[in-house]
Amino acid sequence: MNFETLGLKAELLDAVRSQGYTEPTPIQASAIPVILNGKDVLGGAQTGTGKTAAFTLPMLDLLSRSDAKPRYPRALVLTPTRELAAQVAESVATYGTNLRLRSTVVYGGVGINPQIDTLRRGVDILIATPGRLLDHAGRPTVDLSKVEILVLDEADRMLDMGFIHDIKRVLKFLPTRRQNLLFSATYTNEVKRLADGLLNRPELIEVARRNTSAELVSQVVHPVGRTRKRELLSYLVREGEWSQVLVFTRTKHGANRLAKQLETDGVSSTAIHGNKSQAARTKALSDFKNGKVRVLVATDIAARGLDIDKLPHVVNYDLPQVPEDYVHRIGRTGRAGESGRAVSLVCPDERSQLKSIERLLSRQIEVEEIPGYKKENIEVGSPAPTSPRRTARHGHGGGAQRTSRPKASGRSQASGWSRDSAASSNSGRTSGTGRSNSQARGASEEGRGEEGTGRKRYYRGKRTESQAGRGARRGTSSSSRSGRSSGVKKVS
Length: 492
Ligand code: AMP
What we know:
By secondary structure, the protein is an alpha/beta fold. It has 2 domains: 3-206, 3-Layer(aba) Sandwich (Rossmann fold), CATH 3.40.50.300; 217-377, P-loop containing nucleotide triphosphate hydrolases (Rossmann fold), CATH 3.40.50.300. 33% of the residues lie in helices and 14% in strands. The chain has helices at 10-18, 26-36, 51-64, 82-95, 113-121, 130-138, 155-160, 164-172, 189-198, 212-215, 229-239, 252-264, 278-289, 300-303, 323-330, 351-361, 389-393, 417-421; strands at 41-44, 75-78, 102-106, 125-128, 149-152, 179-184, 203-206, 217-223, 245-248, 269-272, 295-298, 313-316, 340-346, 366-368, 457-458, 488-490. α15 (323-330) crosses α16. It is globular, with a radius of gyration of 22 Å. The relative contact order is 0.16. The structure holds adenosine monophosphate (AMP). Adenosine monophosphate binds at residues 21, 24-25, 28, 47-53, 307, 309, 335-336, 417. Adenosine monophosphate is lined by residues 21, 24-25, 28, 47-53, 307, 309, 335-336, 417.
């Protein structure tokens, strides 16, 4: 399969080529022709699968077929977070570089006046977070009555973040006749309800494996007492010479504190969370992306939608309260066909969270003790004789590293998209088509230690093929309204 067969115009193919993409990702191969046909789409795809180009390329193609003036937004992309909005806007500008279309992004947290000026000059494509868009629509400083294509990106996230009412209010500003594209990593009942009310006989497009990126992620749990987590993290980063690590903490305060402590340990770090100004968030992200800091400590909300190329390590410093967030967190690594490693530092009082995560994944995560750090037992299993299944448990979709021995680990191997769509894997993933099944998880606690490594690795329970990939997310609510703006991105 190559891009030329999808029906996109030459200007877009040139832009894709200049990005170095050789073949479409599965979601792109499926969605692009359908969208070009004018159909509504319900897309099951997570960040990291290439979904942005899957809707942006055909959207640009359709819009470029007519040159409507004066310029009111003819395409509207709604995203849950400022960062994702900015990233989508960047993609729109990149892929549309050879077309005469204009785009801009609006979100809160920054002055509204420059956005008003930009909107007044006219744009074809508007990328927005719901709150700030409603500010504009209410004034009104934007006219949404000419919108032909509506995209809801990361719809499940938007619902999680409590945007359902804002979305409904936005819909009232739109014409009833339009093409609707809804992308979501998972299908909760809420997403289904939203899709039912929004989409007109949609084409359901799912990438073969919803959470392909996670298949390239090797996952490990290091048991550790709560008070020694920081010390262990420092040790792993320094000894393993980890170059770029995204660390998740539960609270904003915890993120700040940890970043400061790591700095004291000589590990360059910065924090990103909702209490920081947008300018500080942007700086933290760019310092991390361009290698000025090794560790970015983030809260779940701040990290949503971050696209950091080839991120090799994600660390769960605190396990998330909501198990589905674990899947989103580890989706930050192993992106775009790269392999990655997800490390969880788990203390005894997080045992039930670990269990919930494993139930969601329908698999158990390898446990590896780091000598000298596991003061308290988190009862993850008892050592048992070596079992032949160990090899299989390590087969994380190819390319995944076997152990996290700090000295040995380094940047992940590159791998192609073809790997994503190919082989089966034992990795946990959410299919989103059903609730996770608590019975799916092996009840037995048959673990074992591994000799000769200086560390113990335990595996618990059994996992059958039919259990693989089950799981769904629950709606959760969180705060963080976002939005803010930047200037127009003229795509011509
Ligand atoms: P997304 O799922 O849209 O966040 O995309 C994740 C990453 O995949 C981005 O860094 C894109 O630049 C990259 N990407 C998108 N399409 C392709 C492709 N066909 N081949 C290789 N990389 C791609």
